[in-house]
Amino acid sequence: MTEKKLLKDQKERQQITQDMDTTFLVEAGAGSGKTRNLVNRMIALLQHGKCRIDNLAAVTFTKKAAGELQGRFQTELEKTTLSMDEDDPQRKRLSQAIHNLEQVFIGTIHSFCAKLLRERPVEIALNPDFEEMEEVQDRLYREKCWDEFMIEAKKEHAPLIHRLEEVGILARDLKDAYNKLSLYPEVQWMPGSTAEPDYQDLRQELDTFLDKAQYVLPQEKPEKGYDNLQLILVRCLIRRRNLDFSDPITLMETFELMDRSGSIVQNRWPSKEEALDCKAAFDAFKKDVVALALKKWREFRHSRVLAFLRPALKYYEQKRLSRARLNFQDQLLLASKLLKNNPEVRKYFSEKYTRILVDEFQDTDPIQAEVLFYLTGEDKEEKDWKKLIPAPGSLFLVGDPKQSIYRFRRADIDTYNIIKDQIRKSKGRVLYLTSNFRSLHCLAEWNNPIFQTVFPLEKETRYQACFKSLNTVRDDDKNFWQGVYKITIPKMERNKKEAIARFDAKRIATFIE
């Protein structure tokens, strides 16, 4: 059976190497040959004279992936060249590419941005000898700057420290928040509120509620102990007796204590009616007073936290940039700023890198997308990257939205879908590679019906990719057991973990044997 008969997406795969003046977003599942198709596109571009090797940029997600791509590209380039006649013009182009192989860019988006910055540092007022910090180096440097700032803050920012303590926060406890915010410098912070809660009104509301509650509580601790609501009320009454609520921090900590479900066990109350009435009163108080008070309190504290963290983060940024040490986010943000605000620079780089290919595009965050669209967009004056239309064939993206798992690093399906729409609007195309070279038919027969019920069938949503059938290529080997099997375990006495594990291990070993 030939490959053409075998592959249901053969037409799409052919477009990758034949239609080189179209911008493509290729959605390719695991085992579909994503990297192979990207390499094929790179070689086809060189082979047909669409660009020189120094005009190519292939962007990957990790250094390891970049190393693998570099090796596969060189191997395939040499293999394709040797397969051609010596007097073939295409061979001459590929031979020239091999001769100048070191001029191709294959690397991570961060190293690509660093390359742009080193080439045009003047426009961004940057020392061209800057040091690129890895994540570990950046973390250590960030911690060093925090320690330095904390020493300085005792003199320079004493009022800010005092204002934190007024709302029950110690400056040293904000290190995790400082680390988190430093990782997302482009995110606009929610401002909080400078309006302080009305503590006097809240004290009166709380006292009134507790006065009523203590009359329906059992006089003695129930035989089986307090239920959740009783426990909350008893603790609040003890706090009032021992601490009183004159201190705002004590008052608001008491409201924090009440921000719980407060479930009841009716037979632990003097009567069922009193239990239900107290529960209803508690729920109403929590909704009408506690929730609103805590919202205002948290927003008030938030404003004071940000007031302290802003100079801490500024200190870290100034130390970094003054010593020409750029972390990953600096490289992305500065490259985006360089391209956004300098049409001439954008024109220069778009002429230098006429073809940009990106692997694992589902892992791309909005800042990385900005850089790519500023480089390939036809309008060099437009500053909103979401309005840019890539020049035909300038951008080739490969990804699998079902593998978008790096939301903690800003990559999410929302950004991916925005870019997909932009490509469609620019007369680009979305291709779907569904042939799978890795799995057997028996796995697809089990997989497809299950995932068909999980993913949207016709069109992706804002939060989820749409279903694409897994079309396997490898034939099942009837000489071996293969596919998906279910190993069951009978009910064990008292669900003892050790007995379950021992039985499970024995059954698996028997299956393997």
How would you summarize this macromolecular structure in one to three sentences?
54% of the residues lie in helices and 8% in strands. The chain contains 19 helices and ten strands.
Describe, in plain words, how this protein is organized in 3D.
The protein is α/β, with parallel strands linked by helices. Helix content is 54%, strand content 8%. A six-stranded parallel beta sheet has the order 3-2-6-7-1-8. Strand 9 (435-440), helix 18 (441-452) and strand 10 form a beta-alpha-beta unit. Helix 7 packs across helix 9. The longest helix has 51 residues, at 272-322. The radius of gyration is 31 Å and the shape is globular. The two termini are 35 Å apart. The relative contact order is 0.13.
Write the layout of secondary structure elements.
Layout: H1 3-6, H2 10-18, E1 24-28, H3 34-47, E2 56-60, H4 63-82, H5 89-99, E3 105-108, H6 109-119, E4 131-132, H7 135-156, H8 158-166, H9 175-182, H10 199-216, H11 228-242, H12 248-258, H13 272-322, E5 325-326, H14 328-341, H15 343-352, E6 355-358, H16 366-376, E7 395-399, H17 413-425, E8 429-433, E9 435-440, H18 441-452, E10 471-474, H19 497-512
Parallel strand pairs: 1-7, 1-8, 2-3, 2-6, 4-5, 6-7, 9-10
Helix pairs in contact: 2-3, 3-4, 4-5, 6-14, 7-9, 7-13, 8-13, 9-13, 10-13, 11-12, 12-13, 14-16
On the 0 to 100 scale, the average pLDDT is 91
Distance between the termini: 35 Å
Q: Residue ranges: pLDDT <50 for 5 or more in a row? A: none
- Gyration radius, rounded: 31 Å
Neighbour order of strands in the largest sheet: 3-2-6-7-1-8
Q: What is the strand content?
A: 5-15%
Note the total helix count. 19
SS-based class: alpha/beta
SSE sequence, one letter per element: HHEHEHHEHEHHHHHHHEHHEHEHEEHEH
The largest sheet, given as strand count, sense and whether it forms a barrel, is:
6 strands, parallel
The best one-word shape is globular
